Amino acid sequence: MTTAFEPIDLGSKRLANRIVMAPMTRSRAFGPGAEPTELMATYYAQRAGAGLIVTEGVQPSPVGQGYPDTPGLHTSGQVRAWRAVTDAVHREGGVIFAQLMHTGRIGHPSLLPDGLVPVAPSAVAARGQVFTHEGPKDYVTPKELSEADIHRTIADFAAAARNAVEAGFDGVEIHGANGYLVHQFLAPNTNRRTDGWGATTEGRIRFAAEVVTAVAEAIGGHRVGLRISPANPYNDIAEDAPGEVYPALLDRLADLDLAYLHLMEGPDRDLTLRLRKAWPGTFVLNPFTHPDVTGPEALKLLDDAGADMIAYGALFLANPDLPRRLAVGGPFNTPDQATFYGGDHRGYTDYPALTA
């Protein structure tokens, strides 16, 4: 029987335990330049007891930003600022991956520089509003990416991954979940293209596959993870055939020898088990625990769902030393929902509990 407190090899790293700190949007890159702050170094270093930390979403390019004060990895200043964060985590013995998150159509021009507007596979606006410095604003109709734009965006992901390694990160996670750009290509309601980047299952998985491949070629597959959330309707996503699309994607990626697959699970445990069976490498599970936050009982999924690692979100905010508390059975501080920014992590809109 596997326990969460056994070490595990992840790429070239030996992790102290099988507990992952899930990515959670914090919006603490205050000021010009979207650069990490001293507060962020303290925050991540406090949680270095996790086997693996995955950072908040980090935009790989200026147009990839969808929320206020989120950090980037596309300038030399950002690289230097992130080095303070990674150094702080490493001093505490931690391992940290940067999550590369291009928000696509989720955002607003007021959050972007130089007259940029949000982009997407197709010119289809999301329903709802995004928070900006001027308050909530309706989503706008995004600019449809041209063929040249798509290739440029793929190159941006690869460049940001190289920057992450330069900044001292142990690897990167590609955010292919929760209604952001990679997920928008996977979903038929946001990808209405009729060219080779849409229309069919093979077309819809192409962008995700090429992003992951380009990043793996840039920094090595052993430093790359992918996060997915099949059928997650968050950010106005509708997927009618996740059982077809996601196995096809995993089959396309199977030979890249990636560090891990990170599944943000929905209510369908059967799909989870199917994807676990289809994935040849390390399987990180962010379990569906509605109506509660993920708690200590999720650790049994290392056996029950075949997971190699279990990801915790909200409970890590309230308990920076969460692995120690899990090991001794508590006590656990209760997460304060008022401090849990849900831009990325409220999960399934029909199930609004904290499911990070």
Summarize it.
The protein has 356 residues and is an alpha/beta fold. It has 10 helices and 14 strands. The chain has helices at residues 38-46, 76-91, 147-166, 181-186, 201-219, 242-253, 269-278, 301-304, 314-318, 322-328; strands at residues 8-10, 13-15, 19-21, 52-58, 96-100, 119-120, 129-132, 135-138, 143-144, 171-176, 224-228, 260-264, 283-286, 309-312.
SSE layout:
Blueprint: E1 8-10, E2 13-15, E3 19-21, H1 38-46, E4 52-58, H2 76-91, E5 96-100, E6 119-120, E7 129-132, E8 135-138, E9 143-144, H3 147-166, E10 171-176, H4 181-186, H5 201-219, E11 224-228, H6 242-253, E12 260-264, H7 269-278, E13 283-286, H8 301-304, E14 309-312, H9 314-318, H10 322-328
Parallel strand pairs: 3-4, 3-14, 4-5, 5-10, 6-9, 10-11, 11-12, 12-13, 13-14
Antiparallel strand pairs: 1-2, 7-8
Helix pairs in contact: 1-2, 3-5, 5-6, 6-7
Report the average pLDDT across residues: 93
The shape, in one word, is globular
Cα(first) to Cα(last) distance is: 26 Å
Structural class: alpha/beta
Question: How large is the share of residues in beta strands?
Answer: 15-25%
SSE string, helices as H and strands as E: EEEHEHEEEEEHEHHEHEHEHEHH
**Biggest sheet, spatial arrangement of strands:** 3-4-5-10-11-12-13-14
User: What composes the largest sheet?
Assistant: 8 strands, parallel, barrel
Total beta strands: 14
Structure annotation, total helices: 10
Helix content estimate: 25-40%
Radius of gyration: 18 Å
User: Which spans of ≥5 residues are poorly predicted at pLDDT below 50?
Assistant: 341-356
